[in-house]
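Lab notebook, bench 4. The sequencing result for the construct came back, and we need a structural model before the next group meeting so we can plan mutations. Quick request posted to the team channel:

Model the 3D structure of this chain.
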Amino acid sequence: MLVSGAQGAEGPAEEATPAPPTGTHWVGTWTAMPQLTEPGNMPPAPFIQDGTVLADSTLRQTVHVTVGGGHLRLRFSNAFGGAPLPITGVFVATPLDGRAGVSAIRPGTSRPVTFHGRAGATVPTGAQVVSDPLDFHVPAGSNLTVTTYLATGQRSTAITSHPGSRTTSYLLRGNHLGATDLAGATPVDHWYFLSGVEVWSPARTRATAVLGDSLTDGRGSTTNHNDRWTDRLATRLRADRRTADTAVLNQAAGGNRLLNDGLGPSGLSRVDRDVLAQPGVSSLIVFEGVNDIGTAPATPESQQEVAERVIAAYDQIIMRAHAQGIRVYGATLTPFGGNRDYDDPAGHREAARQRVNDWIRTSGRFDAVVDLDRAARDPDRPGRLRPDLDVGDHLHFNPEGYRVLADAFPLPLFLDRPLPPGFGYT
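Done. Here's the predicted structure in token form:
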């Protein structure tokens, strides 16, 4: 006998779930790539004691959303935790003066978040948890404060975080979920546990995810100013009514590689979690591979092999994204000439970069190509970055460099267009 989910034989039906607010689907508006926290990026003392992290501690973090909405929900990750993650309570609020990286919130804006109707949740090892929908208006391009309290802490020194936040978070002993300010809190420039914010959005709202490394994570950008190239691209998209409903999901981490784990799992191994499983994604930007080239031995044989493997990785990512109806845009790898670690006198790594870029430009496999190499290279020395864009290490960009990268993306790539017939076959 078939019995409906709400009608049991032993009693009355449960209270009906309220109708969802006006809208069509959930779309990610902010993400941070989860990774295992290195020792140097762990919470400082006294927030680690006897193998337990953040016991009886409040964690206040701000994040920068790209598209807005009147209803939101949060994602917390325990992907790399060595024990279950017991979250006692979570509140969201508007930060004081709307700023990123502040410990104070605007009075009267704090609201509790629930999980299956409860104040907290325990995230199993290796899993994530998504909160209940919350009626809370968050404007596009604004900052959101998320305050979390852990009564017992996580009983492991293996925890999940995003070290390269470029945004200041705050730690304070005790339960201060509803506090207007966290006086005396310890500042840390990392995000812990929080991995995503979603908003309930009309059908036209969509997201573009970015698979990348430190050049996308924003090394060289300004702490608490949200001036990574992905932030600047999101600002450009909001300014045009045709693309204003496009979110940008930064799924990058410093040191990340396509082929091998290191600082975070490899791009190939995380594309399902960080792109395909994200709600509302309609396009993917791939700007990754320079760390694969830069960490491979500077010999002709090794560089030929790594170039071939990076190209094969691109092809795999394209096929997997196409199967989910996601367009894939390839970004050429930017120069590293003069960098102490990656440049080699014989130019073997530069030859590999050129080979990879030639494939990106000419293979026809990507749905579009954005030539970041051409936008950022020194016209007089094309193997190097333009000096005015270089943060100083000849690999990473300063804020002006990140603006130039963002400006290289044609906005029509992000228009809401139907997929062509046969899309996804390869």
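Confidence is low (pLDDT under 50) at residues 1-15.
Will bring this to the meeting.
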